[in-house]
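G., the chain you wanted modeled:
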Amino acid sequence: MGNQKIINHNSYKSHRNNYFCTKFKKVQMQSIRNIAIIAHVDHGKTTLVDKIIDQAKILDDRKERTDLLLDNNDLERERGITILSKNVSVNYKNTKINVIDTPGHADFGGEVERVLKMADGVLLLVDAFEGPMPQTRFVLGKALELGLTPIVVVNKVDKENCTPDLVHEKVFDLMFALEATEEQLDFTTIYGSAKNNWMSTDWQNETTDIVPLLDAVLESIPETKYNEGTPQMQITSLDFSSFTGRIAIGRIFRGDLVAGKDYMLCKADGSTKKVRIKELHVFEGMGKVQVDKVPCGDICAITGVEGFEIGDTIAALDNPEALPRTEIDKPTMSMLFTINNSPFFGKEGKFVTSRHLRDRLFKEMEKNLALRVDTTDSEDKFNVFGRGVLHLSVLIETMRREGYELQVGRPQVIIKEIDGVKCEPYETLSIDVPEDVASKAINLVSLRKGDLLVMEPKGDLQHLEFTIPSRGLIGLRNKILTATAGTAIINHRFSEYGPYKGEFSEDIKGAIVSSAAGKATAYAIDRLQDRGRFFIDPNDEIYIGQVVGENSKDTDMGVNLIKGKKLSNVRSSGTDESVKIAPKIDFSLEECMEYIKVDEYLEVTPVSLRMRKISFRP
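Predicted structure as tokens:
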């Protein structure tokens, strides 16, 4: 019996040791490559990462497979864009490749700028038909400034009318214009189709997998160097776990980090704070693996460190040296956020008070570096500064989905005084339109003080480039899409601050405002259809002061949409015409933000978007 116990005890010990060996992997010194993927919105960046994951056979074949694995946020899947940067790691030929997926939109440049600091090289992904786009230029410029080695991937070479060789030349010209070094201009180019899972060094020679791309990464991207000395790691992004709290993510620039040891946290104001690392994780596949020690050059996640901010450095206890912080481009646009005080407040949302709103906005500032929140002299109003309408609308949409009710004002550009001259932000706007409607687009941009820089044919489209004040872009997309019957492809990026160009001369339509509360009737809407276009359907609940339509004249008009038809007791069957009501105009969140005027608020709830006058007397 005693022997049996000893045998069981020994087998338990060996089982436990095996368990801990597999659970806490020892980190061998292996070759590491850190690469960031840069591309314009919808050029196939996240799809390419999917194929790299498939090539490395990371996913369990038994589990259900979804596309766009890294766009795991509902908003990202719906809009088809990457908003938050993410990390994934693959092992190929005994080399660990850390792949960092970055947002392609200039409004999320705050994410891109800090994430590039973790990389040694970049994969520049370009569409074989569209070529380098404005936002490609924005992120590529940042990467070349940091001295990263580029590999150019010309994607979607299976598209009709594509010109891979011409695109290759355009990328070279772009890099030259961005003052790339001789080494950076001598870049490797890979052609292929991520969707069809092949890459090759020659676009006319189709292969069966994406191995040529992974081989190019090993050959062209420099291996991470091991820097001897005291440890230094900069926190470049953060994650959150409901079990362990905030998680710091970053790359180790010098020395090694060891779990369970004490370090110094160097903060923005120059102060230092003693912290202990409870757990260390490295990225492996789509997830993380807990380790005891992480060497220089790898990207890791740390739990147990409290009170850190993005940009802080974790350094040695006895001689802490902080790494230089990333300078994030300043915001160019602001919006007023306030609590919902409309007659329908609290009906559709969970979080409605100013305390809820305040806590949520300040929490967002911790991880959204390009965002700034200022309090005002009123308890329930906050000025929120961001990089553009899309940047701010993603925050509003995220809050809306979390159950918040709030109101926002019209976006305002940030005016600065530079050397005694009043200056405003300018953007480079590019529009691709069919030739027959190009003149309409040029006319609309000219009305907003835009100057035409480039006009050239691109396939069967006309490619136009303008420089335009940022405030001219507010509401412009809608007008261009209407004028070109939805055929225009519009992109823009911030370029610089320039002298203020004065007021725009354009006709502004008035609003149709409800002067009574209740359910809108078809009879009342039908009677007023010749006065403008409506944003509501019959039987929708409305309140006094709600903007229910657009007046065809330039003045606001109060209307009673509750009034039904007076019924008489004598009636012939054929006197009433059947009511024919035009469909209501449906606005997306961005369209609403751009449509409202200075004297209006946009009421945002988890269910509805309503525009209303700030003060209205019927």
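The radius of gyration is 28 Å.

Shout if anything looks off.
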